[in-house]
């Protein structure tokens, strides 16, 4: 057991992996269909209580699509009673105005609606479902009901040149916050990397547009622009450091240091049904595996950035190098950085890559 | 702590006092009056300067909005 465990601030409750959308960059695991919903309302409420006792103040209700669960109202009510800041992260499908009203009454603090693109055909193509018009309607209900609205648009090669239109759309919906989040290449997005990874020129132009909008909209709409790791010089501090600020609980009850952690080899994850959350947080093998700095190889070990980026993303390191303890290859100091450079080079050439939708069938073969 | 999507801002005692008075019903002058009472003998104009500086920063971040 570590001397002084850090305090987690955020619980990410992945209530279910079920989702009517089939987004080509879904961050759920490739074998999501193997992990059913194992926690009932009472079990989730217990997880919320245990998380709050550990120091958690932020709760993300997500999935999959959290709205497919019919017990969202009591879950929000329970979270409110614990004084957690509760954010519903949704595709907006399936939703009704009445349900949103009930969730607001239960104490929901914020609603984040994903919109895949600015026009119906493109948005629906990425989502694999006709959903664009309905999403706009849901976003309008959120504001009509007086709830704060975050719009989240995942960016990639096909929509990055329309960032100005994404900003216009978010403004027209009176969003309080716009997340322009570039795809990160893990899970389904890694399968589809050839079709999704943008060029550096695309990224630079979009970043400039977002920067100008941030200035112009200051105080009205917060504009966040998250670059893809693949174009960063140094890795991001993934999850703010392993086992440091975040706890993810998956639909089957597995407690994870990040939502992609189960794609890592040789790690076993305790389930919240079997062990109290504070014990999992402080003592479990999985949460301690890459916590702190003792696990770090060179060049991280002696790098002055190690306390800022914590060595980057473990999942990215594993999926690109085969070694989960390697320095994130995104880092320009990594000996595996050529893997990232090769992918960037590939993005510079025109591609006619096919895209693979999230499905349970391909998950079986992946 | 002031919480908003995906983040939180740890407020010091004075900042927390100000935020708690931002109920949507008080004017800035009323907030300053209340706090000047609490922080006496701190002069009212010193309190006012602090309140305005803090509220301006919060409005710029979109965390507090002024009505009317």
Task: Please give a structural write-up.
The complex is a heterodimer of chains A (366) and B (68). Chain A is α/β, with parallel strands linked by helices and 366 residues long. Chain A contains 15 helices and 9 strands. Chain A has a 9-stranded mixed beta sheet with strand order 7-6-5-4-3-2-1-8-9, covered by helices on one side. In chain A, a hairpin with a 5-residue loop joins strand 8 (246-249) and strand 9. The longest helix of chain A is centred in the middle third of the chain and has 17 residues, at 200-216. The two termini of chain A are 36 Å apart. With 68 residues, chain B is mainly alpha-helical. Chain B has helices at residues 13-21, 28-38, 44-60; strands at 2-4, 7-9. Chain B has a two-stranded antiparallel ribbon. In chain B, strand 1 (2-4) and strand 2 (7-9) form a beta hairpin. In chain B, helix 2 packs across helix 3 (44-60). The longest helix of chain B has 17 residues, at 44-60. The chains are: A alpha/beta (366), B mainly alpha (68).
């Amino acid at each position: 057991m570590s001397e002084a465990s850090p305090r987690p601030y955020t619980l990410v409750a992945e209530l279910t992996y079920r989702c009517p959308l089939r987004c080509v960059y879904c961050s759920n695991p490739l074998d999501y269909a193997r992990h059913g919903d194992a926690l009932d309302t009472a079990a989730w409420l217990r997880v919320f209580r245990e998380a709050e006792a550990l120091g958690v103040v932020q709760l993300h209700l997500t999935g999959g699509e959290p709205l497919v669960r019919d017990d969202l109202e009591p879950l929000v009510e329970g979270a409110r009673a614990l004084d957690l800041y509760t954010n519903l992260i949704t595709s907006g499908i399936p939703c009704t105005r009445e349900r949103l009203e009930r969730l607001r009454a239960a104490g929901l603090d914020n609603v984040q609606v994903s919109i895949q693109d600015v026009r119906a055909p493109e948005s629906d193509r990425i989502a694999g479902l006709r959903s664009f018009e309905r999403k706009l309607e849901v976003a309008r209900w959120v504001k009509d009901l007086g709830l704060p609205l975050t719009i989240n648009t995942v960016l990639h090669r096909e929509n990055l040149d329309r960032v100005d239109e994404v900003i216009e759309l978010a403004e027209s919906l009176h969003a309080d916050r716009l997340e322009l989040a570039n795809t990160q290449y893990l899970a389904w997005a890694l399968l589809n990397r050839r079709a999704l990874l943008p060029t550096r020129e695309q990224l630079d132009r979009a970043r400039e547009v977002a920067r100008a909008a941030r200035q112009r909209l200051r105080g009205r709409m917060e504009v966040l622009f998250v670059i893809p790791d693949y174009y960063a010089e140094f890795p991001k501090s993934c999850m703010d450091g392993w086992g440091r600020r975040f706890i993810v609980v998956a639909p089957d009850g597995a407690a994870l240091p990040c939502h992609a952690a189960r794609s890592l080899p040789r790690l076993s994850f305790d389930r919240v049904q079997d062990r109290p959350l504070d014990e999992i947080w402080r003592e479990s093998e999985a949460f301690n595996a890459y916590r702190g700095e003792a696990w770090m190889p060179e060049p991280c070990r002696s790098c002055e950035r190690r306390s800022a980026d914590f060595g980057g993303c473990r999942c990215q390191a594993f999926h690109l190098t085969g070694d989960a303890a390697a320095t994130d290859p995104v880092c320009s100091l990594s000996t595996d950085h050529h893997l990232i450079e090769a992918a960037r080079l590939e993005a510079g050439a025109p591609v006619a890559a096919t895209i693979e939708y999230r499905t349970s069938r391909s998950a079986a073969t992946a | 702590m002031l919480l908003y999507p995906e983040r939180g801002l740890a407020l010091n005692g004075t900042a927390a006092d100000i935020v708690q008075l931002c109920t949507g019903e008080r004017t800035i002058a009323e907030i300053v009056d209340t706090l000047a009472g609490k922080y006496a003998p701190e002069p009212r104009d010193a309190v006012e300067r602090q309140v305005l500086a803090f509220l301006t920063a919060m409005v710029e971040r979109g965390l507090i909005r002024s009505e009317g």
